[in-house]
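Re: that backbone. C-alpha cells:
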C-alpha cells in the first residue's frame, strides 16, 4: 500500500496533497473466508490502535527527536476527509467504515523518516475506509468494531474475544475458517483517490492554491488474509534480498513505504497476478 502511494508521488510531478483509499473484500458464491486467525489479528490491532502512546513516545524520542524542526508534520490546508466511523462515500457509492488499523500511522511515520533523514518536504494527508455492500453490513461491522474497542482494552476481554470469535463478531468470523473454495473465489480491491498539483511548487506556495489534479489508482489481488498476505510477504522478503542496493539505507528497521519505494516490489507483485491501474480523472 505504501509503495503504491509513493508511486503516486513519482507520477504526479506537481506533488500530492491527500490520498484516500477504499478497500473492498469480495466474496464468491461460497461466502466470506473469515477465520479466527484474522479475527485475532483484528483484536490485537484494535488494542494497538487505542494504546499506542508508549511506543509512539519512544519512537519520537529515539528516532525523530534528533531533528525536532522536521519531525512535526504540518497540516495540509485542502482536504475533505470525513473523520467519522461510518459514512456514505460518493466516490465509491457505498457505505464505508473507517480503517482502524496501523496504515495511517505507518504512512505518517514514512513521511517523518523522509523529512528527518532524506530531506523530503512532501506531506500527504491520508485516510482509509472499508467499503461494504450495504448499510446492514456497515452496521454489522460497526457493532463488531465497537465491541472490540470496549473488550480489547483489558487482557481478559482480549482472551474472551479470541476464544469465542463467532459470538463476538456476530457470525462474521469462526474457528472453522474458510474452505479452499472460498479463498479461491474471493478477491481484494483497493481504490486510491489522490489530489495534487499539476506544476511543481514550493510547499509554502502549494498551501495558497487548491489542488488542481486528481488521480485514481486501482489495485486488485486475491483473497486478502491467506493468499494476498502470503504473496506480499514472500515478495517483500525476496525484494530485501535481491534489491538491497535500491534501498535508501544499509540496514535498520523502516516502514514499507521507505524501504520499498525504489525497488521492484510492484513489478514482482504484478508478475504474480496483482494489477495496478492508474487513471487521471482531472
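Recovered sequence:
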Amino acid at each position: 500500500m505504501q509503495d503504491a502511494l509513493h508511486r503516486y508521488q513519482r507520477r504526479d510531478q506537481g506533488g500530492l496533497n491527500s490520498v484516500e483509499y477504499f478497500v473492498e473484500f469480495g466474496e464468491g458464491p461460497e461466502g466470506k473466508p473469515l477465520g479466527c486467525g484474522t479475527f485475532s489479528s483484528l483484536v490485537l490491532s484494535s488494542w494497538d490502535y487505542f494504546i499506542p502512546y508508549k511506543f509512539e513516545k519512544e519512537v519520537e524520542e529515539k528516532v525523530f527527536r534528533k531533528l525536532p524542526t522536521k519531525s512535526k508534520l504540518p497540516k495540509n490546508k485542502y482536504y475533505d476527509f470525513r473523520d467519522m466511523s461510518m459514512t456514505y462515500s460518493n466516490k465509491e457509492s457505498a457505505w464505508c467504515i473507517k480503517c482502524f488499523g496501523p496504515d495511517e500511522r505507518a504512512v505518517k511515520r514514512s513521511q517523518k523518516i523522509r523529512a528527518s533523514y532524506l530531506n523530503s518536504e512532501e506531506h500527504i494527508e491520508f485516510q482509509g475506509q472499508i467499503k461494504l455492500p450495504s448499510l446492514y453490513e456497515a452496521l454489522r461491522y460497526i457493532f463488531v468494531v465497537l465491541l472490540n474497542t470496549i473488550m480489547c482494552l483489558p487482557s481478559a476481554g482480549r482472551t474472551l474475544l479470541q476464544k469465542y470469535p463467532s459470538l463476538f463478531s456476530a457470525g462474521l468470523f469462526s474457528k472453522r475458517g474458510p474452505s479452499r473454495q472460498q479463498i479461491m473465489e474471493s478477491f481484494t480491491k483497493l481504490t486510491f483517490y489522490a489530489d495534487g498539483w499539476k506544476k511543481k511548487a514550493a510547499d509554502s506556495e502549494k498551501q495558497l492554491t487548491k489542488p488542481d489534479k486528481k488521480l485514481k489508482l486501482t489495485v486488485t489481488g486475491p483473497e486478502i488474509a491467506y493468499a494476498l498476505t502470503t504473496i506480499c510477504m514472500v515478495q517483500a522478503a525476496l525484494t530485501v534480498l535481491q534489491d538491497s542496493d535500491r534501498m535508501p539505507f544499509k540496514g535498520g528497521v523502516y516502514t514499507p513505504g521507505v524501504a520499498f519505494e525504489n525497488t521492484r516490489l510492484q513489478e514482482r507483485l504484478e508478475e504474480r497476478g496483482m494489477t495496478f491501474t492508474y487513471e487521471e480523472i482531472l
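The chain has a mean pLDDT of 83. Residues 68 and 116 are 9 Å apart (CA to CA).
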